[in-house]
Specification:
Helix content is 54%, strand content 4%. With 323 residues, the protein is mainly α. Strands 1-2-3 form a 3-stranded antiparallel sheet. It comes from Nocardioides marinisabuli.
Length: 323
């Protein structure tokens, strides 16, 4: 399976930057400080938004659900936007901005001939989690799985997360009948592996295992996730490690808990059973990416003035801009 790329429509960036320019003073000041690191200011961001909007408007006569991906911006645009958003990671959670962005983009597609009445393609399905930009891979459920604009620095974690996305895309999430249990068990196994890799537990004494990793990640999530989602995730983790262990080992050693294999497999057979686990591990990976982007050094796609070097030119030189 070819890895999905976070190649988003120019209207996504037009609306994202306009939302940031229209945000409250504290958020706008943080955006301004982030832009200053690249030698830009809020007026420049306004001009970026205008050029993205012009590119979007110029492509409208040629746009439909099948061709939308051909008119999307290269991944580098999304990486720059993700870097900018990472500077806001200490400003509560990003769900309100994500919702506003998605709603604005949806309004554009509803009024676009060729896109009305069809499912939105990946390039028009933006999402922001943990102040990390991405796109929703089209499935029959909203918001998951999430294709990241920028991958985690750790190549193994990036590959493991990509594998999780591929697995979810092969699931029939709207199935009327339960899945074979191994399809859901695989999500538990990979989610646990990712949590342990993101925050490896310290060496013994006992009780420093996967539960420690999850608690550590949950503690770090409190500022990046809304209280309602945080409460939902905490409820999901109750007994989760024990279920994951019996799914992996089939039988638990004495003292490891009382969960049985049959009871655990009964809880991984539908989308509703595994959705919160997938949501949680997606948040954990996203907050890891935003943390990495928050700190220097600049990623290659952001260093050396990418706007002047090629992003602006890519937008201006697109064939539909002069058609």
């Amino acid at each position: 399976m070819v890895a999905l790329k976070c190649e988003l429509s120019p209207v996504v960036f037009a609306e994202l930057y306009q939302q940031l320019l229209s945000s409250g003073r504290d958020l706008r000041e943080s955006v301004e400080l982030r832009l200053a690191d690249l030698g830009y200011d809020l007026e420049d961001l306004q001009s970026w938004a205008e050029l993205y909007r012009a590119n979007w408007q110029a492509q409208l006569p040629y746009l439909n659900a099948d061709t939308a991906g051909d008119f999307a911006c290269s991944e580098e645009h999304a990486i720059v936007a993700s870097w900018l958003l990472a500077g806001l990671r200490n400003h509560s959670d990003s769900s309100a901005l994500s919702y506003a962005l998605d709603t604005a983009v949806q309004q554009h597609t509803l009024g676009t001939t060729g896109l009305e009445g069809t499912p939105r393609p990946l390039s028009l399905l933006p999402v922001i989690r943990g102040w990390t930009l991405g796109a929703v891979a089209p499935t029959s459920v909203p918001n998951l799985p999430m294709v990241l604009a920028r991958q985690p620095d750790d190549e193994a974690i990036a590959a493991a997360y990509q594998g999780l996305i591929e697995h979810v895309l092969h699931l029939d999430v709207a199935a009327e009948h339960p899945w074979p249990e191994l399809m859901g068990s695989a999500i538990y196994v990979r989610a646990g592996g990712l949590a342990g890799a993101l925050r490896p537990p310290p060496p013994p004494p006992p009780n420093h295992g996967l539960s420690w990793s999850i608690e550590k990640l949950m503690g770090e999530s409190q500022r990046q996730i809304s209280s309602s989602i945080l409460s939902r995730l905490r409820s999901n983790w109750n007994g989760w490690v024990e279920r994951r262990n019996v799914l992996t080992h089939v039988r638990l050693d004495e003292g490891m808990g009382s969960a049985t294999f049959s009871a655990a497999t009964a809880l991984v057979r539908t989308w509703d059973d595994v959705e919160t686990t997938l949501l949680a591990i997606t948040h954990f990976v996203c907050q890891e990416v935003s943390m990495e982007l928050f700190e220097p050094p600049l990623p290659a796609a952001v260093a050396k003035d990418p706007w002047r070097r090629y992003l602006k030119r890519e937008l201006e030189d697109a064939w539909w801009m002069s058609a």
